[in-house]
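#data-curation
PF: Archiving a pair of folding outputs for the training set. Convention for this channel: one message per protein, sequence first, structure tokens after, nothing in between. First:
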Amino acid sequence: MSDQDAVALNSEVKPKSMIRAKLWSDEIENLYRFQTAGYRDEVEYKHVKQVDLVERWPESGFVKKLQRKDNTFYYYNKLRECDDKEVHKVKIYAY
């Protein structure tokens, strides 16, 4: 069981700290997608939506589709969507 799985099992999922992204990466791209859909990260999404897997693009590994808390869906492209001017808005949580 990974650390993320252990955190996901805890009903009170609370991050210990948060920093802001400075440079774009694949990880930052996926966090951007979770945060535009209204979640902190994959851990919170899996906990709230009670899902084991997040649908991803096989080519890039980026998140493909997320369900918001109001049950509408966000669909994302295969390629990068987080522009350089948006990177500083992405929050990276530590548990």
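PF: Second:
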Amino acid sequence: MDSNQFREAAVASIDESERHVVSKVEPGYLRKLLPDAAPEDGEAWADIQKDIEVKIVPGLTHWQSPNFLAWFPCSSSFPGMLGEMWSAAFNGAGFNWICSPAVTELETIVLDWLARAFALPECYLSNGSTHGGGVIHGTASEAIATVMVAARDKYLREATSHLAPGSEELEDAIALKRSKLVALGSTATHSATQKAAMIAGVRFRAVPVRAEDGYKLTGEGLRKAITEIRAKGLEPFYLTVTLGTTDTCSIDDFDSITAVLAELAPPGPGELWVHVDAAYAGVALICPEYQHLSQNLDKFHSFNTNMHKWMLTNFDCSVLWVRCRRWLIEALGVSLAILRNDYTDSGLVTDYRDWQIPFGRRFRSLKIWFVVRTYGIKGLQAHIRKHIGFGEMFAGLVKTRQDLFEIVTGPRFALTVFKLQGKEIEGATLEDQNAVTKTLHDVVNAEGKIFLSSTVVGGVFAIRHCPSTPFVEAEHVKHHFQVLVEAAEKVLSRTNNTKI
């Protein structure tokens, strides 16, 4: 099977003609179909393969379908799958260089490739002036937890550097400081930051964002939050800023945030570690028209984006860069006698176990290597631009039916956020309007022709449409809109009859 045949087979297997995008099974369905205990003797592969189709596939939601529009995509590609296959075949833990030198060195090289392709500042390159570099994690949540732990230890280390190492006074000072630490994000920041704060044992505060600011974090909002936190005797040490928020794909105001931090928490002891969460939209930096967004990144400490969301690389593959690798190594480095080897002792190699929370790691860089070499930078740029065009197409269609829909935000990075409107709900309370939009969302998903996710922004319940799965084409976008129009007309007709 060559790549064209593979693509045709993949599209045919997930097309809308026969299967719902979302699984329709009830909770606990699989336990009824499988035996209570594992088989004593091995079974024929033909029987196992049959059960995939009969018992497993009905319980899948088809993320590769052109009608999967929810959350953000989890993309795949023929070269990405081959990279996954080769990684599984080589099957090594990869915790240090000597485990398999190619695993470490290919990762360093391809992440430098990507850093240059995304126009990241030189400090994020493995040979940059501050000796930064990139590492592959499983997900953006893992990356955020990792850098928050590094930020916590960096802050505590610098705040107590005047005390004697190993002393009881140092131990007490660290414990006291730790109890006061606060991690910051905005109310539009992904919940991964709050979860990372739970893992790191620190407090979390969310800075409000406003509709009039485009739901982005601003320097003004950050200033107020830092001032209030410090007035309570607490110490902010970490901030997540976002390039492409989950709800609306908004971009935080990096310029004003940078200016406020330069004033309230300048570089040096007491500074805030700033991490850029660009899990979905970050890969758009491969297109020159978006590379102005990377201009302030040299003032921040780390940057992360997911290749597995929008860059044709199979889940999981989240790439993280830091300005200074020493920050990770000092927080996460481990040393055991069994790990000693001449190459590690020489200091001339990278042991990526010290750049992450897990010990072992997979050969994920193969997937990136295969995808980048197969598509090339120009092919990947075309891929991103194609979906951004589909987002603009959908928003244009929505505007042709202003009797039914209103755009809340977008289109941004292919994402359009919209709500239901019409004469049937004019003058209704926001609560009732939200209820009708939610009904539309539920009706569409129940039909199973397309799958959408929802959000609440500024108190408004809204529907998200994100046409960036690998197989989506213009005809699919037109189909999505037609499904929504038909459902909206039914919902509004029903609403008119029941009189809100």
